[in-house]
Amino acid sequence: VSRRVVHPPRAEPDAALAANLHVAAGHWAAGRARVRASADWEAMRERGRAIREDAIRNLPELVDRLEASVTEAGGRVHRAATAEEACSRVVALCRERGATRAVKSKSMLTEEIGLGPALAAAGIDAVETDLGEYIVQAMGDRPSHLLAPAVHLSAGEVAEVFSRQSGRSLDAEDTRSLVDHARGVLRDRFLAAEVGISGVNLAVAETGTLILVESEGNIRLGTGLPRVHVAVMGIEKVIRDWSGAAHLMQLLPLAAHGVPAPASLSLVTGPARDGDDGPEELHLILVDDGRSSMRGTEYESALHCIRCGACLYACPVYRQIGGHAYGSTYSGPIGAVLTPALEHGAHGSEELAELSSLCGACAEACPVKIPLDRQLVSLRADAARRHPRPAERALFAAWARLWSRPAGYRASAATSGRALAPLWGRLARASRGAGWQARAPFPFSRWTEGRDVRAPDPEPFHARWRRRRG
Amino acid sequence: MRESRSPKRPLPQIPGFLISAQTACKQATFAPARGKRAAFSVALGRPVRVSLFVTCLVDLLQPGVGERTVALLERLGCDVDFPAGQTCCGQPAHNSGYPAEARRVAERFLDAFGPTEGPIVAPFGSCVHMVRHAHPRLFADDPRRAAMAAALGERTYDLATFVVEQLGRDAVGGRCPGAGETPVAYHHECHMLRGLGSAEPPLTLLRGVEGCRLVETERSDLCCGFGGTFALKLPDLSVAMADEKLDRARAAGAEAIVSTDAGCLMHLEGRARRRCLDLRVHHLVDLLEPEGRL
Hints:
By secondary structure, chain A is of the alpha/beta class. Chain A contains 21 helices and 12 strands.
């Protein structure tokens, strides 16, 4: 098990969880309907794809340029090839300043590299300040969605945790009181924090500007109040210029929530200058951790992802099982591609690609047109190659041998339809109407656990055609 | 041995075994629809020659769907040929991560349909998607076959898209029996909806069916959970997805679900039967029969 993969995927549908998710996904779907009805959504997606493709194709050059412009703006840039390097760099920055209290903004990258546990181990008290992330941290849980970490929870579950935390009885119906509780706790933490840690949504190479998108205002406080701002960023988040940034800043909220602008946008170019409010120091940690190695593979375009979460809400599998079932930091279709692609299939993480019916809803929802459905198919081929399943391979080999020849195909059809008819019949416990069976031989017994199955027709179409039309 | 019937050989004039007396196609003249360019109206009054790709699931499990597809095409003035060497598009192996095995079976498709000319029509959008979009990629290292696959893909159509967009027909008749109207939910087959971008053609044909009232279901774009081998590998998840689809259809008041994918249909009907739901499940072509099948 790797850092990114907590446990193997579990495809267990959970009705209560699904009910929570269907509400959130329903809001998303309503927003998407508005967006798709608007004029130039497809053209916007294509432009978004091109902007991101440019960034990843020219990644080394743009990362160098970003480093130069951040430095020029007065920030300090630290490059980390691995998660461990990134974490120890952040810990060292805190220690060098004698800092023990930090506030954190929501960042999937910090989840991926395990920054929270690393800070805790170093005795640095880092509190999550995004409401959903705060809830998840309070429960000792993990986020289950890229944007909405606590989307799997109901208000009742949140009220329970907050009541325990506050020693008061908080009412799930009164969501305002829940928010007020978190806000009260967090306000003191913001004021006391010595270091503010954030992720980065996008970084503009030409000016060294870090773009931070949020809806709660916690990032603004968390990166503005403390003396030191440490921004942790995957190198793939760089883009060339402001024209691209302006476009992606429209695309992201449209894809995520169906709204044309984010609730709050912070543009950070260097630390505070003389006389300004803001942090005295800005540190940018540039994390690679497998990203460079994805370039040039067929999964390169997964690096185009802008973490909008649309593919999660669009996915018919995610809505049944939720993010935790994937067992990896990144869940949903993008997680099922990104996780094995970053690790090149180490730890058998291609297994995540099985959590898809290949319906293509993810690729359709993606604002930068990542062909996630195609990549999921390729990952299955990688898995079959790297971790052979002999029985399955033999089955498909035999199938291909038979069905690549008309005679073999017709023989197998005749065998399953006619010769095996008594077997199908015997397996049928109850009469299910013409051609339907309640039980079937392996592997179709997996089918009949929850469904009746059609028995093969004794006279297939090709035989009927031949009999009647010669 | 050449399995495929020569495209040039005329089809024997058999009194339509699939065609009811009152609609028998008398090699009907092909009439392009008003205001639409019918792509295959090469010569007015001449039948359009169509090669049927019946697809393995329809062939083996629902041969009646294949027969009704032939009946419909003939009723619309097509001269239908069934290249005998066809088997499957290779999708089960492709989607399971066995491209070499998928390729062997895809080669069979090329061999069977290569010698044909004109449109290839299948009553199954997912297989058309496979032929159009996956076959050329499967042969990426074989330029001759890749070009052949691309050329075949371009003239392979799902039945509804072929009828509406290529033959230019808005309505082809069909009838739901019984008094009043039957509320019908249409289930968009994923690979037809998203892969082929064909949302409208099946709805267009359904609107022309007498006694059929199309009901709107919420999130009718959601996958039903069939997904080929997915349905066998993760049966609980697959069934949970079917339940959501079935429950939404029932909530919308539907008494029947109609689709174009024999896999989705078997999955949904198999689940509806197991749950003893009063919900019928039909292939689109069943409703386009002049007598009506419901």
